[in-house]
Amino acid sequence: MPNGQIRKALSGYYYVYDEGKLLQCRGRGVFRKRGEQPLVGDFVEYEKVEEGSDGVIKKIFPRKNELIRPPIANVDQSLLVFSVKEPDFNTILLDRFLVILESHQVIPIICLTKMDLLTEKEKDEINSYIKIYKDIGYEVVDTYKNDPTLLDRLEPILKGKTTVLAGQSGVGKSTLLNTLIPNLNLKTGEISQSLGRGKHTTRHVELIEVAGGLVADTPGFSSFEFDHLEKEDLTTCFPEFERKKDECKFRGCLHLKEPKCAIKAGVETGDILEFRYEHYLQFLQEIIDRKPRY
């Protein structure tokens, strides 16, 4: 049984949480020999070298998932932060993030920022998208500048879960983190324009207790490719496709040119939205065109 969890990694040390205390630990050399690396979020077995001194991590327990950037394991969910304006709401980028999270078995929660910047007409359009994604099965939280209700609304979502933030650049991830973790003081706008690959990506990852759960103090991950995903698995990352795939005539249907495809039929009837299907086709082509790895 694990007797601790890694909550922070810094300069070769791992800080293991056990019964309300953090103990500085080293990893055993055998991890390096096996090509293993302890990650923040790992449940571990450790032992103290001697009372009051450093500990040694002896065993890493199996992970339910792991992310590369940020390097973190056993994530339950992600607050997927997207602005509705400046930058404008972008459904293909949102769907790309949703697919990546689904493929890692991380539950996405869509958090829309800057609602206060919308005109009434724009608000109607965004509300129609909110309904679309809620109907698919996603939880959606909308927020605006200096929103005093945000923490109260997020508290039941965060409770008992390990959460990371993700989303495009300039959408308010740092502002959201500062709301959740007031003593963090991340500078807003400090993330670079290249889709989040900025100064914060070099910071250490730390899990901090917030609202009865754990939140990673990193402004999200920056791996946007489908390198780990096979074409046969893409359907599983579109929940409305997954619900209908058994109705396809052929097992393993890619919903391209196969006859009696339930997904294509769903697009025809409007049960599946055309823009989601078009995004699926684009992502599928990316995976098919991917150079083989040796």
UniProtKB/TrEMBL annotation:
One of its GO terms (molecular function) is GTP binding. Its EC number is 3.6.1.-. Keywords: Cytoplasm, GTP-binding, Hydrolase, Metal-binding, Nucleotide-binding, Ribosome biogenesis, RNA-binding, rRNA-binding, Zinc. Pfam families: RsgA_GTPase (PF03193), RsgA_N (PF16745). Transmembrane segments: none annotated. SUPFAM superfamilies: Nucleic acid-binding proteins, P-loop containing nucleoside triphosphate hydrolases. It comes from the Bacteria. GO terms for cellular component: cytoplasm. It is found in: Cytoplasm. Residues 73-222 form the EngC GTPase domain. GTP binds at T113, K114, M115, D116, G167, Q168, S169, G170, V171, G172, K173, S174, T175. InterPro entries: G_CP_dom, NA-bd_OB-fold, P-loop_NTPase, Ribosome_biogen_GTPase_RsgA, RsgA_GTPase_dom, RsgA_N. Binds 1 zinc ion per subunit. Monomer. Associates with 30S ribosomal subunit, binds 16S rRNA. One of several proteins that assist in the late maturation steps of the functional core of the 30S ribosomal subunit. Helps release RbfA from mature subunits. May play a role in the assembly of ribosomal proteins into the subunit. Circularly permuted GTPase that catalyzes slow GTP hydrolysis, GTPase activity is stimulated by the 30S ribosomal subunit. This is Small ribosomal subunit biogenesis GTPase RsgA. It comes from Ureibacillus thermosphaericus. The gene is rsgA.
